Structure formats: structure tokens, C-alpha cells
Amino acid sequence: MLSFLVVFPILVFVFLQSFGTNTYPLQVFHTQWIEEVQLEGQTLRDTVEDASLLKGKKIVDTIYHRIPNFRLTDQYNRPFQSNQLEGMIYVVDFFFTRCGNPSLCPQMSQELKRVQENFKDQKALKLLSFTVDPDHDTPAVLKEYAGRYQAQEGKWFFLTGDKTKIYDLAFEGFKVNAMEEEAVVKPDFLHAIKFILVDKEGRIRGYYNGTEREEVDRLILEIKILLHEYKQV
């Protein structure tokens, strides 16, 4: 009995540290609210995109942005479809294997490896790295790159495919930039250095600087919060 009295407060403290003071509701990004307004005797509807403007408005509907369906190829040269992510939380980044700046793509991949290590046994979490240089980054190239970061098969997917589709998915789906930049010597690419957290409903719940350890620590915490929302921790 004495040992229980000693251990129980410790367990409570650990729980509160994990899901008490550090628990907070995660934003759903790119949400739109439909308000109803009266104008010249008519009932009209308008779209509100800023949550700070909701006060005093009559909101009749809420529209959540969701990631569209996509079909690409993974590092094992296997088809990868977005429906494989049903019921999953996932983290996304955009990169290319011949990135020459060690503080960008390699750093992001190293940080994503750290995310993988924190959730290696969590089946409800997947990691997706989309190449912005698909002409060069074939499945074989991606497989070699994935090996450098001990990517766990079935957990961390490196995806390639049609360049236009990938760029459109980045811009329209994940709301980040991805493009090829003209260069004299060799192709260069501009892409967001963000990690993107997506929930089971395909809604974006967070953006994080993938080159900064503190930001990735926040991502790790918010993955835990999201898993806790789904009661999977």
C-alpha cells in the first residue's frame, strides 16, 4: 500500500505533464465559415476566412479544407494512393535528394528521422516525403536516400511521380510552394521547409519549420496531442 501511495502521485504528475499543461486544442487550418446576412430584405451568404472576424456573425456552415486524393510511386517502385492513409495521422515534407545545402533537405530528413524514432511503434502515424525533382528522384534514387535515414518500411514513404501533379498537390492541397528554378549549371528547386501535420480527416492541423529542432519538438508534442484526441496514446 505504501508503495502505491508513493508511485501514484508520480504517475499523476507524468500524466499532467504530458496531457495537462501541455495539452491544447490544435487549429484546423484553411477553414472557411459561411455567414448569413440580411441585405435589402434578402438573406445572403458570405464566406469568412478569418476566425477573429466571427464575433457577432450568424454562422450557418463550416467548410474544412481537406487534402485531395493523389496517386504516386514510393521508393520501392510500388503505387502509393492517398486512400492508404485512411484512418491515419501523417506528416508531410517536400525535398529533393540532390539538394546541395546541408542545412535544408538533409537537415529536414534528419529531423523527420527523429519524428520516426519517437513514434516507431505507433501504427496510426505515417511520414510522407514528396520529391520536387521527380525527373531525377526515381524510386531507386529515393530508396538509396531513404536508407541513409533508416526509413522504416511501411512508416516513412518517399514519393515520386508526375512533376505537375506533385507541384499542384503542394500548392492546392498542402498550401505550400514547390517549383523548379531556372539555373545555368544544374536544376535547382524552391520548396517549403515546412513539416505539415494532417489528421485522420485529411485536414491540416499544423505547420512547422523542419530545419529547427524546437519547431520539430513542437510537432512531436502536437502529434501526441492529436493521437490523444483519437485516444491512441
What does this structure look like?
There is one protein chain. This protein is α+β, with helices and mostly antiparallel strands and 233 residues long. The protein folds into 2 domains: 32 residues, no CATH class; 159 residues, Glutaredoxin. The protein contains 5 helices and 12 strands. A 5-stranded mixed sheet has the order 8-7-6-11-12. A 3-stranded antiparallel sheet has the order 2-1-3, with no helix packed on it. Helix 2 packs parallel to helix 5. The longest helix is centred in the first third of the chain and has 18 residues. It is globular. The N terminus is likely disordered.
Kindly summarize this structure in a few lines.
By secondary structure, the chain is α+β, with helices and mostly antiparallel strands.
Q: Which short descriptors sum up this protein?
A:
12 strands; five-stranded mixed sheet; 27% strand; 233 residues; disordered N terminus; three-stranded antiparallel sheet; 2 domains; Glutaredoxin; alpha+beta
The CATH architecture of the largest domain can be given as: 3-Layer(aba) Sandwich
Poorly predicted residue ranges? 1-17
Largest sheet: 5 strands, mixed
Number of helices: 5
Supply Rg: 21 Å
What's the overall average pLDDT, rounded? 84
* Helix content class: 25-40%
Q: What would the CATH topology of the largest domain be?
A: Glutaredoxin
Question: CA-to-CA gap between the ends?
Answer: 28 Å
Strand content: 25-35%
**Tally of distinct domains:** 2
CATH superfamily of the largest domain: Glutaredoxin
Strand order of the largest sheet: 8-7-6-11-12
